[in-house]
Predict the structure.
Amino acid sequence: MSRIDFMQGNTACAEGALAAGCRFFGGYPITPSTEIAEHMAAKLPKMGGVFIQMEDEIAGIAAVIGASWTGARAMTATSGPGFSLMMENIGFAVMTETPCVVVNIQRGGPSTGQPTLAAQGDMFQCRFGSHGDYSVIALSPASVQEMYDLTAEAFNLADRFRIPVFVMADEIIGHMRERLLIPDMVVRKERKLLGKGNLPFRADDDLIPGFPAFGKGYGVHVTGLTHDERGYPCTTSPSVHESLVKRLVDKVESARDAIVSCDIVNPDARVVFISYGAPSRAVEQVLHDLHRDDIGHLRLKLVWPFAESMLSRFPNAETFIVPELNLGQMAREIERHTDRAVVPVPKLGGALHNPSDLVALVEELV
Amino acid sequence: MTFDEWLRADRLPHIYCAGCGNGTVINCTLSAVDQMGWKKDETVFVSGIGCSSRAPGYIVTDSLHTTHGRALAFATGIKMANPDLKVIVFTGDGDLAAIGGNHFIHACRRNIDLTVICMNNMIYGMTGGQGSPTTPFGALSTTTPYGSAEPAFDLCGLAAAAGANYVARYTSYHVRELLLAIRAGLANPGFSFIEALVQCPTNYGRRNKFRQVADQIEYFKSHALLVQKAERMRGEGKEIPDDMFIIGELARRNRPALGVRK
């Protein structure tokens, strides 16, 4: 039976992970994400799972990757400074095709910045923060409900594509409390296993190889070095490196339109808000207050890979307004994909956009 | 010895230089694992970055060749998520004690059930011979061209102080003792740390007056002081010469271990 609860966003994130079968959490306390670790520390041992507080975030993501290789659904949660520390091992997870979920409850940066206030300044870091070329998936919840739903979905995407999947929330969504509908069950699509006798890093038609979990007799060698389809280091062949990295990127990018996830309001609108995460709440208030069908809203639930097909769902759009809790990160990505006017509405400092400011902006434009 | 079947024949020849001591340690480890009757399907080798860390790539079991310094954190995740797996970590002095120093002391403190074998060649071999945290005071390397001005870490002292259940040090000369120490480490629940001093003729020996491979092995033989003898000397008020190093079993205890199925 599904049930209704009243819950904090971070707790809902942890509950979503548990419902999705997450049985390993490795991490390090950091504001404003710590409630996720605390909830996992309380719940996992009673469910046959493992919670371990590591010595830093580098070790947290490393333990998660190790756990994932035993076949477990594994996650960590952090915020800006910890996210920065994780970057090298996130690249390792990409290169070794290790499914894992990384939650970032974003706070104001750079550096220690504003530990208790919201920001969306890590959107490019999650896309490009580790070295080399690669592609990942990032989701952005805008409610407590989505903290639950999108975290659960992140595990399916991580298992399907064998990549780190990011839940890029923010302090507002992480710490707000609201109604949560907990479903009977969460749809689980587990990782595809490697067929016996197949080479461990030879991809199938979907560009993704089957997973050879440790302890099952596969005898697989997993390395962050450039490797051939056997998994053996092969670091000087240009063609092996090129085909490996291109496949790691293509397996995600070729599925862009298949996995797109967004909400669309008033597709015939001339002026269209594009938002993700907490600013979506301000935009929803604007649409509610103005009550006009020539103002549209595209709310991204899946931010990376950015599917430009979402923009063409608004054929009459003349202007895209992009409120963000940063200096215009996704606005820059949107500009890259459209010939319409893009108006960034950057906001720093920790407070959400005031809906009346956005109303004034719309009235100026319409 | 029947450890041949633990090696990936299709990966040979290996990358190690002629005269390298790492092969001795890999040999002892695989012999120990084989003598313990461990099965390939339940054994996992984990490593970081460096010459030592290439070893798992030559072994037929599941293996994870991770990022620099982080092998113990990855191994902790594997062991905690599946305590039925037997996890062995190959590491080196730079990997373990410099970039991975924090993970080292915390893994010892947790006393997690891993066997960690450090091939200590006292140099960064793979990158061409830079000084490491175990480069002896005064020794020459590409980054200590006037002699190292820093004292070296005592890795075993660090492990014992931080809480590891089993700690031993031997060298590539003490093959039989090394094998037995690794066996003891494999058998002992909790964190087992075995340091093996190894020669690196390419990047350490030739810069530090060990013109032949055998010269450094001879040095290991003549400058190793068994822990029991060292304790006797201390008891007699005799000073242990600065150029001697202590070998033997340096800690064996039974603190509660993490990552063991209850």
Summary: The longest strand of chain B covers residues 245-252. Chain B touches chain A at residues 8, 11, 40-42, 44, 46, 54, 56-57, 60-67, 70, 73-82, 84-85, 102-103, 106 (CB under 8 Å).
